[in-house]
């Protein structure tokens, strides 16, 4: 039994859309394109469709992530990857997904859209929100197709322990895909879980260029999985999904000099994260700051509503998570620039909320 056999039968037998053939140095009269781009403000040939899939970008990302090109699908942000996984593997009103909460809200949103049941296992602040693997496995049954693990987790900032992940992968072998969302992995000293894929075909890893690479507006993400899983996701994804200027922009961000700049920015952000972790507990309104492997900190305030109002007066926005289970009076604070972080600390120090 291969991991691809977990897909919905109608997806496995799907005849994907056959896009017009694309070949260099040809006269393209097969795709109903305009012969010129007279209305374009840029030099790029925007009158021509982009590649059906951005093959060059896929190959470059495969190099960066140390996997084979056929194990990568470039998506419009990692959010689209979540949507594709739900559509390919979960039958409406039949299959389910399992998640730890609190976590990234889009897992539930896309499951709800697909009509898949969502089984939530709460984590506790006392254990720094570590996933309860025993509870996760107990929540699984024959209809559990996807187990989502965000690591580092949004909004709590913690990473899953390697032995816990291995236990999930081993116990759900042949039964479920274990999807590790590594949107923030560049900010931690821990290694990506991609290296486990050679021994665990049910592992799927999500990556993005929105965070560490600073390309949130470009919407470039990736699914990394067994080639058979990638082929299924590819059959469902729209053709020409990634625009030509976005492909060019992403490729330029993955050149040597730009990668060096990204690495330097990450180190600066890590230093600022350590500074805020140390400084925030000294602020009167701060009750607790959790350790984080990501580019944000989860903070519990004594009076979150008052703090939020005071920060708004200084034109500073933080993300309120107080309605999530176990996160009363908690907010997520993204690590900004040194100047932005100074203003945050000043506003909190002067707060009389």
Characterise this structure.
This protein is of the alpha/beta class and 353 residues long. It has helices at residues 9-12, 55-65, 77-89, 106-114, 133-139, 162-171, 227-236, 244-253, 256-279, 304-313, 338-349; strands spanning 72-75, 96-101, 117-122, 144-150, 177-181, 203-208, 221-224, 286-289, 296-301, 319-320, 330-334. A seven-stranded mixed sheet has the order 1-7-6-5-4-2-3, with helices on both faces. Strand 8 (286-289) and strand 9 (296-301) form a beta hairpin. The longest helix has 24 residues, at 256-279. The chain is globular and about 70 Å long. The N and C termini lie far apart (59 Å). The model has no long low-confidence stretch (mean pLDDT 93).
Tell me the layout of helices and strands.
Elements: H1 9-12, H2 55-65, E1 72-75, H3 77-89, E2 96-101, H4 106-114, E3 117-122, H5 133-139, E4 144-150, H6 162-171, E5 177-181, E6 203-208, E7 221-224, H7 227-236, H8 244-253, H9 256-279, E8 286-289, E9 296-301, H10 304-313, E10 319-320, E11 330-334, H11 338-349
Parallel strand pairs: 2-3, 2-4, 4-5, 5-6
Antiparallel strand pairs: 1-7, 6-7, 8-9, 9-11, 10-11
């Amino acid at each position: 039994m291969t991991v691809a056999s977990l897909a919905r039968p109608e997806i496995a037998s799907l005849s994907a859309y056959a896009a017009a053939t694309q070949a260099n140095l040809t006269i393209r009269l097969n795709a109903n394109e305009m012969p010129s781009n007279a209305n374009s403000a840029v030099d790029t040939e925007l009158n021509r469709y982009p590649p059906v899939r951005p093959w060059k970008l896929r190959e470059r990302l495969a190099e960066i992530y140390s996997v084979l090109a056929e194990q990568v699908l470039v998506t419009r942000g990692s959010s689209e990857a979540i949507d594709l996984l739900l559509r390919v593997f979960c039958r409406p009103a039949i299959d389910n997904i399992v998640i730890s909460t609190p976590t990234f809200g889009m897992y539930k949103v896309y499951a709800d859209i697909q009509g898949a049941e969502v089984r939530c296992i709460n984590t506790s602040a006392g254990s720094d929100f570590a996933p309860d693997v025993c509870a996760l496995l107990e929540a699984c049954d024959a209809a559990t197709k996807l187990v989502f693990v965000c690591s580092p987790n949004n909004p709590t900032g913690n990473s899953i322990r390697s032995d816990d992940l291995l236990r999930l992968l081993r116990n759900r072998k042949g039964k479920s895909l274990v999807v590790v969302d590594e949107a923030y992995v560049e900010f931690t000293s821990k290694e990506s879980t991609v290296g486990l894929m050679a021994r665990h075909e049910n592992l799927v890893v999500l990556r993005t260029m929105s965070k560490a690479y600073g390309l949130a507006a470009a919407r470039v993400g990736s699914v990394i999985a067994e080639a058979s899983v990638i082929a299924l996701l590819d059959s469902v994804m729209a053709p020409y999904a990634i625009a030509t200027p976005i492909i060019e922009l992403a490729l330029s961000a993955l050149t040597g000099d730009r990668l060096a700049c990204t690495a330097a920015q990450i180190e600066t952000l890590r230093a600022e994260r350590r500074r805020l972790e140390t400084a925030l507990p000294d602020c009167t309104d701060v009750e607790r700051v959790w350790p984080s492997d990501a580019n944000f900190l989860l903070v519990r305030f004594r009076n979150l509503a008052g703090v939020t109002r005071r920060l708004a007066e200084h034109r500073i926005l933080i993300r309120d998570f107080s309605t999530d289970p176990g996160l009363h009076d908690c907010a997520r604070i993204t690590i900004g620039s040194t100047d932005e972080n100074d203003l945050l600390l000043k506003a909190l120090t002067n707060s009389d909320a």
